[in-house]
Amino acid sequence: MSTSPLTPGGASVPPPPIVPATPSEAVVQSFANMSAALTGFQPSFIRPFLDPVNLSGTFYSFAVVQVGQAMMDALMSAYSALSSQTPPLSSQAIADALLEISSPTPSTQAQLCQAIVAMWYLGSWYPPPFQTNGLHQVISSQAYTKSLVWNLAQAHPMGFSAFTFGYWSQAPASLETFGVNTGNGGGQ
Amino acid sequence: MSNNGASPQYDVVIVGAGVSGNLIAKQLGLAGKKVLILEAGLPVPDSREEYMNNFYLALAKTPEAPYPALAGRTGTKDNPAGKLPDPATLPTPRATVLGLGGAPDVSYLVQAQSWIATHPDSPEPPQNPPTAPTGEVRGLQFSSTFERNGGGTSWHWLGTSLRELENDIRMWTKYQHAVDWPVTYDELQPLWALAEKEIGVAASVTQQEPLEVVGLEYPQGYQYPMQPIPTSIVDQTVSQGVSGLEVPGTLPDTPGGSDPQMYDVFVTPTPAGRNSEPYDDRRVCAGNTNCIPICPIQAKWDPTVTLGKALDTGNVTVSYQSVAYNVAVDANNNVTGIDYYQWSRDEHGNLQKVSKSVTGKVFVLACHAIENAKLLLMSNNWKGIANKSDQVGRNLMDHPLYLTWALAPQPLWGYRGPLATAGIESLRDGEFRKYRAAFRMEIGNEGWNFATGDPYTTALDFITGTNDSGLNTDGPNGTAQRLGGTALALKLNNLLTRQFRIACMFDQTPLQENRVTLDVDPQTGKPNNVDGLGLPRPKVEYGFDPYTMEGFRMAAYVCSQVYKQMGATEFTKNNVGGTGDFTYRGVNYHYYGAGHVVGTHRMGPDPCTSVVDATQRSHDVQNLWIVGSGSFPTVCTANPTLTLLALAFKSADSMIAALNS
């Protein structure tokens, strides 16, 4: 019975974590801007001016550990190229290009973009290419309590409500209030 | 064990710190009696922060997710493979949602191994269990789970505090089906009032008045302790949508007879054990939509509230990590003491146990319908006690739960408010109960979270281009779409805000062959499967009779009528060949457990056919009370917690009388 992973003494020793270099402010901001395009949320919502939680930095570093610096660098370069085009592309067009929406067989890089959307929406890491037996995991408590899919329901993460008694008997605030970028190339 | 003629150590020894145990401890403590509670699991934590963190980090947010001896956390540093703990390694293993349908190395309850072709390499197509010549379907999995820690399973009760109906408890007299309860409706009225005060039930008698049509009555002038919980927009939408809807008592070709009367379908707010105003130093509900698995702010009553009051009497002691394994009975049919293992983990994490005994005057088994039965059967060297009726462990029931789900034509904004705030209670009674199971219908406020694991499933569908939700069909020729950016956000907003579900819970027939036994080899007398303390595990056999399944057929019909009347599109999916799947009259159904585990030590007036009397006192063993929902002779049409708490008040009074006589 000492082999139970749940007993303190029986737990296997985890491998030493790979600690990436702390990303620069510019890289984190670029990752946040790309995340905003991919998720359809407002950039200022993804990375507010005052951002003590810093999910952008957490998710960037987490993804680097999962897929390696080279793959992240390549993705960030691709985003940089798309976002500096003249005339500027809409954020919807950038999202569609990075996710290769029109392709029936999205590339590894596009699948990483899917995983980044899932990180923001669900607070969890679904290793690309989303194989069913992959080691899904919730990235952190804050990644769950800040996960954005609940905003799309105009609600709150289950178990983490900032609303007050009786709010459920009234219609919610607008989708924009929940941080969604509804006006930029949206629609179906 | 023997007390060697010494005075008993306690007036009362209670096994289990849950709903019944804590209430009885409090009442006896207030009466000046010295009480010991033996709780198998870990202590109630000082703060629920640790439990909340377990919940946040659980990928599968199942009812058990927040609680100790965790299951459901996958891919974490401590448990990288996401493997479920082997019940054979745990001191207090319990049934878990993630362990359902599994082999004994993940499922604490030992259940008839699925005869279903579930192995991925099997050439056989999946199929459901066969129907026996009696019309029954056997070999089903009992799908309810429970907790074994301080506070018990009702850490994650929903808070639904409906009263039983008068005809619920006199089914034999009224409908010649099942059995009557040995208590009357009038007798229960003041007990319900006590239970509602203890919990702090939020409801309005005026709002409940329409349920007079099913026989719901309150004493003149009765008022609930606090104002009702507001209904959700989901409730309001369903309520308006079903206006004028009537359904017949039975469908054509119902076996046994027909009830052609038309019954009104209407929505009423649900009495709730959650605060609409500050009560007992607890906050008002903030609508965290998380009553199950855990209320983050304890706005919902749970048994730890009553445990605190019990401890405040100064007469109650709790011994945690204390697993009772033998109720010692002398030649005069009196309990002399309880033997238990006090367990701990050493510095290497290895389980240690010390055998101890405690003596008392009165003994109470309050450790869950399945664990009560297991403890009775384990006692006296596994020959059993208090079982002259041979009913211990039999008549195992649940509220088998049939879930249906739909997309409303306009947003009704689920995922907000308490998990459920209203239901359709108007079909809980009628002449049809001669022929088929009655049911209540709970309207959910959590979108398709229960139904499909949403918002995760639908979100992943549109991120990756799959269609597990059934909603991703707008691509060319009905194929799945892949979306990103604002298009993805708006699509999910459109779908998630229109999701809702209805859960139907049935008054299942008590069957002798639905039972809990010890998982012991009949040849050798040795256990097949044990827990981490070496104690035998519960073996469960379960099935449905046609009366119960006819209830499912009706429920599926009523739900479809409700959705049709509302203009909603139904997405209910019933698979084949999995845990909880069965076929009735050629139609496939899926049921979940409701956690309402009932019947394993049924109460009744006759010692030959029941285990306990109307005070939940053993017919056979004079100073033994066996309490909780296991005493319910039938599961009825209301969620059981309110009534099991009410019965605990009655039991406490009878114990005080016995101790004082």
Explain what the structure shows.
The complex is a heterodimer of chains A (about 190) and B (about 650). Chain A is an all-alpha fold. Chain A has a domain at about 20-145. Chain A is about 40% helix and about 0% strand. Chain A has helices at about 25-40, 45, 55-65, 70-85, 90-100, 110-120, 140-145, 150; strands at about 125, 135-140. Chain A has a two-stranded antiparallel sheet. In chain A, helix 4 (about 70-85) packs antiparallel against helix 5 (about 90-100). Chain B has about 650 residues and is of the alpha+beta class. Chain B has a domain at about 230-270 and about 400-510 and about 545-590: Cholesterol Oxidase, domain 2 (2-Layer Sandwich), CATH 3.30.410. Chain B has helices at about 20-30, 50-55, 170-175, 185-200, 205-210, 235-240, 305-310, 370-380, 450, 455-465, 485-495, 545-565, 640-660; strands spanning about 10-15, 35-40, 110, 135-140, 245-250, 260-265, 265-270, 315-320, 320-330, 335-345, 350-365, 400-405, 420-425, 440-445, 500-505, 515-520, 540, 545, 570, 580-585, 585-590, 625. In chain B, the strands form 6 sheets. In chain B, strands 1, 2, 8, 9, 10, 11 and 22 form a 7-stranded mixed beta sheet that branches. The longest helix of chain B is centred in the last third of the chain and has 21 residues, at about 545-565. Chain B is globular, with a radius of gyration of 24 Å.
